[in-house]
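Before drawing any conclusions, I needed to go through one protein's amino acid sequence and its backbone structure tokens, quoted below without any editing.
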Amino acid sequence: MSKKFHTRAEAGKMLARELTAYANCKDLLVLGLPRGGVPVAYEVAKILGALLDICLVRKLGVPGHKELAMGAITSGGIRVLNYDVVSSLGITSQTIEQVTADELQELQRRDRAYRGDRPPLNVKNRTVIVVDDGIATGSTMRAAITILQQQQPKRIVVAVPIAPPEICEQLSEQVAEVVCLKMPERMYAVGVWYDDFSQTTDEEVCHLLAQQLAVSSHS
């Protein structure tokens, strides 16, 4: 295994160096996928001089194996299913609906916690960089791309520290560009590629969003 990232913040700084072509682009918006993608996105936004927001998406975990994604859902109710996982494990539609209902509830809670009364930033006709701390199956990122495409951005760029090469290839057919620092043949879980992969808290997400909001309001 090649060298790990120390923290999400370090990964974000390294990622930003690969995105300098977008630095100080007037219409640039960086979106982090909560929760783990937000500390990475924060560093990218800070270094590129961009606005930061979140793109609320929840993984639909397989019951009993929550890390394994059978799909993902967005706060707008858009659902993307990973049919390979669903069929190979024989997951019933009843199970899918139950997990979807639970995750939609959690999405609505996070929306209130992270945004309060603040509406999402408008992505129409903007260059949008979507950031996560890593990609395993791609379900969550595909759901994020689907909801963003409906809002007609000028350009979507996916930026992650680590992802399997075949997932990067698939995503590159959906977006303008995919920037990925490491593409191992054997991915395992995203967490094994970090020295510190402690869970990002709601408080940390709110703090980073507030910090970036304060910076952009003074610039």
Observations:
- The CA atoms of residues 136 and 163 lie 6 Å apart.
- The helical segments are 8-17, 37-48, 83-88, 93-115, 139-149, 165-172, 202-218.
- Strands lie at 28-32, 51-54, 57-62, 65-74, 79-81, 127-131, 155-162, 177-182.
